[in-house]
Amino acid sequence: MNLSDDLNVNQVIGVYEYFQFLLQLTLPFGLLFQMPVVVMFVTRLGLVTPMFLSKIRKYAYFVLFVIAAVITPPELLSHLMVSVPLLILYEISIVISRIAYRQAQKNAIREENQAFLQK
Q: pTM, whole model, 2 decimals?
């Protein structure tokens, strides 16, 4: 005996529903989890700095809330379950950016010193 039989509930999940869930929630959320890696890469390229990321924090939060609203069903709990990790990831991205920025500065100073000593 099954609970679904007792409640007269039929499970109707097809291929369309599966791929709809996959494309609307899983893939965007998975891609957004790459944010710290992307921010570190962009920082190492010198396109952004940790100070810039801290300066635009309120705009980034707004964009992350909008993204979370787009990829989640229209209910508050789901929205918060996606928004909070995204905000935490943004803060982790700033910390990683600081580390990458310091490392890039140290490498630039080291290369400058080596070039000066070779002259």
A: 0.74
Give the amino acid at 78.
S
Spell out the alpha helix ranges (H) of 1-119: 3-6, 15-21, 27-32, 35-45, 50-55, 57-71, 76-118
CB atoms under 10 Å from CB of 71, counted, come to 20
Are the CB atoms for 47 and 105 separated by under 8 Å?
A: no
Q: In whole angstroms, what is the distance from residue 69 CA to residue 49 CA?
A: 28
| Residues 21-56: tens digit of each pLDDT | 778 777 888 888 898 999 999 999 989 999 999 999
Q: Are 8 and 64 in contact (CB under 8 A)?
A: no
Contact between residue 64 and residue 83 where contact means Cβ atoms under 8 Å apart:
yes
